[in-house]
Specification:
The complex is a heterodimer. Chain A has helices spanning 22-33, 35-41, 55-64, 80-92, 109-112, 139-142, 150-162, 179-188, 215-225, 230-246; strands at 45-49, 72-77, 98-101, 116-121, 163-174, 191-200, 205-213. By secondary structure, chain A is α/β, with parallel strands linked by helices. Chain A folds into two domains: 8-213, Vaccinia Virus protein VP39 (Rossmann fold, 3-Layer(aba) Sandwich); 217-247, no CATH class. In chain A, strands 3-2-1-4-5-7-6 form a seven-stranded mixed β-sheet, sandwiched between helices. In chain A, helix 1 runs parallel beside helix 3. Chain A is globular. By secondary structure, chain B is α+β, with helices and mostly antiparallel strands. Chain B has one domain: Single Sheet (N-terminal domain of TfIIb). Chain B contains four helices and four strands; from the N terminus they run αβαααβββ. In chain B, strands 1-2-3-4 form a four-stranded antiparallel β-sheet. In chain B, strand 2 and strand 3 form a beta hairpin. Classes of the chains: A alpha/beta, B alpha+beta. Chains A and B meet through helix 4, strand 3 and helix 5 of A and helix 1, helix 2 and strand 4 of B. Chain A: Keywords: Methyltransferase, Nucleus, S-adenosyl-L-methionine, Transferase. Chain A: Residues 42-133 form the Methyltransferase small domain.
């Protein structure tokens, strides 16, 4: 049986491009675990932001190829060398995606708004001094600024803009990125979330999150944001307070 | 890489294509995908883009959406070719407002802005 994900020996490389590592494998494992759902999801446009070596987008294509007809793939990276390496990885696996060298998804946001059904992101999440963010070359693959959140926090609104009504979003985070806070931020935008993969390596605690638009959540948030429902909000926080006391 | 161009906006749309080398890749024909995309396409931009890559078979005016379900595949086949099978391998995308050129090398458009453009 042909491999369902990208083969490491076929992944192209360059010293200025991040090689597939534990975080990439964890993200692909999350996609593998969700494969049946993804096929049923029947996406038309899938996209990876920050495609690096191309390992993840190639795996996603292989996962869906032959299962979902007529799906189009896009991949972006701010590092021109990564864009080239991704193209080589795609080619080595005999699959196709439009690779664009750009910052996050700038130049695609307007025309693709509300059109993307699946977005996968393995962002630069390593906590670093802020001045390291936005440096060229391989540093752009990991430098995440304060708490590793500087770039993630830029990506979230873009993802919200791009995702279609039924859109799904997979994100790699570290515990030091405060994933629960990220979930809360996304909840305010009307997204539900769940942990797909949780993995501790020697160096980092990885958490792969999945987000999707939750209609009930949106309704609920609209309710709570209006002043008339202050009481219900209050009673909710009260009950959670009591709950905590009980524990 | 026509689809990217059609979607591609920096500070102006549509980007004009300066074709250096255009390649054609065969892609499986999928009417559902084309119907899905048809609603999102800026027709004139697609026609212009395809023409600058040497494909002038698309009708000038946006066809009625009914043609998609008419059972006549002629139009869908043309759309399929223009949208998915034409790739700009070498050339540039040019902003219609500023004339700024975004180079395309090995099929990858470089849309990065210089510091003074951000």
């Amino acid at each position: 049986m042909p491999s369902r994900i990208a083969e490491i020996r076929l992944v192209s490389s360059d010293h200025e491009v991040y090689e597939p590592c534990d975080d990439s494998f964890a993200l692909v494992d999350a996609l593998l675990a969700d494969r049946t759902n993804l096929i049923e999801h029947n996406p038309k446009i899938c996209m990876e932001i920050g495609c690096g070596s191309g390992y993840v987008i190639t795996s996603l294509i292989l996962l869906l190829k032959n299962e979902v007809p007529g799906v189009h793939f896009l991949a972006t990276d701010t590092n021109p060398i990564a864009a080239r390496v991704t193209n080589e990885t795609l080619e080595a696996h005999g699959v196709e995606a439009d690779v664009i060298c750009t910052d996050i998804a700038s130049c695609l946001e307007k025309r693709l708004a509300g059109s993307v059904d699946v977005i996968v992101v393995n962002p630069p999440y390593v906590p670093t001094p802020d001045y390291e963010v936005g440096m060229e070359g391989i540093a752009s693959a990991w430098a995440g600024g304060e708490n590793g959140r500087t770039v993630i926090d830029k990506i979230l609104p873009v993802v919200d803009l791009l995702l279609s009504e039924k859109g799904w979003f997979y994100l790699v985070t570290l515990t030091s990125n405060s994933p629960s806070e990220i979930c809360l931020l996304m909840r305010k935008k009307g997204y539900a979330s769940r942990i797909m993969v949780q993995r501790s390596t020697d160096e980092e605690n990885l958490i792969i999150l999945k987000f999707w638009r939750d209609k009930d959540q949106e309704m609920l948030d609209k309710e709570t944001s209006s002043s008339s429902s202050f009481l219900s909000q209050f009673s909710r926080s009260l009950s959670s307070f009591i709950e905590k006391q009980w524990r | 890489m026509l689809s990217c161009n059609i979607k591609g906006v920096s500070n102006g749309f549509p980007l004009r294509i300066e074709a250096g080398k255009v390649i054609e890749k065969e892609v499986d024909f999928n009417p559902d995908f084309l119907k899905h995309m048809f609603a999102k396409i800026e027709w004139k931009a697609l026609v212009e883009g395809a023409r600058s890559m040497g494909y002038a078979e698309l009708p000038e005016d946006s066809p009625d959406a009914t043609v998609l379900d008419s059972g006549d595949e002629t139009f869908l086949r043309k759309l399929h070719h223009a949208l998915l099978e034409l790739h700009l391998e070498e050339g540039a995308l040019v902003c219609p407002e500023t004339g700024r050129k975004f180079p395309v090398n090995k099929g990858i458009p470089n849309m990065l802005l210089h510091e003074d453009e951000v």
